[in-house]
Amino acid sequence: MKQFFLILAVFGFSISFAQKLEYTNGKIYQNGEQLSSFETKNLMKTDLKALRVFKNAKTKESLGGFLLGVGIGGTVADLVMGLTSDVKYPTAITYAGVGLMAISIPILSGRKKMVQESVDMYNQGLIDEKKTLGDNFELNIVNNSNGVGLRINF
């Protein structure tokens, strides 16, 4: 009976560690719950390549969004100044804003693919670990001042 519970516990631990991530509609889910970027980074700490790709995607998203926002803001501000005063419209601010918006498009274009790639890399690492879990399993009998027990390493 004890062996049955031990095998059940080991099987339960192996399933609980192998939690795949899903990337749908621009959001990352684990077991049906949406994860924030911070939680995703904490999960991906075990796979450094996937973490690096995910951080690069988030950097692209931040930089592209910033440039897009500055471009739109500059263009709208110049438009408002042109409509409310006697200043000749468009000025250099409008051209700079349009240029920043144009620059942000290629920066923002590859971020979703990079996030999908990082999630796939992370999930692939989970599959590889699951295949080798039996090889990395170690069961020891431990004796200390509290008594005798079992130690499971994997």
Structural features, described:
With 154 residues, this protein is α+β, with helices and mostly antiparallel strands. The chain has one domain. The chain has helices spanning 2-17, 37-43, 48-84, 92-109, 111-136, and strands spanning 21-24, 27-30, 33-35, 138-144, 147-153. The strands form 2 sheets. A 3-stranded antiparallel sheet has the order 1-2-3. A two-stranded antiparallel ribbon has the order 4-5. A hairpin with a 2-residue loop joins strand 2 (27-30) and strand 3 (33-35). Helix 3 packs antiparallel against helix 4. The two termini are 23 Å apart. Mean pLDDT is 84; it is low at 10-16. The chain crosses the membrane at residues 89-108. Keywords: Membrane, Transmembrane, Transmembrane helix.
Give a quick set of tags describing it.
154 residues, alpha+beta, three-stranded antiparallel beta sheet, 5 strands, transmembrane
Could you give a short description of this structure?
The chain is α+β, with helices and mostly antiparallel strands and 154 residues long.
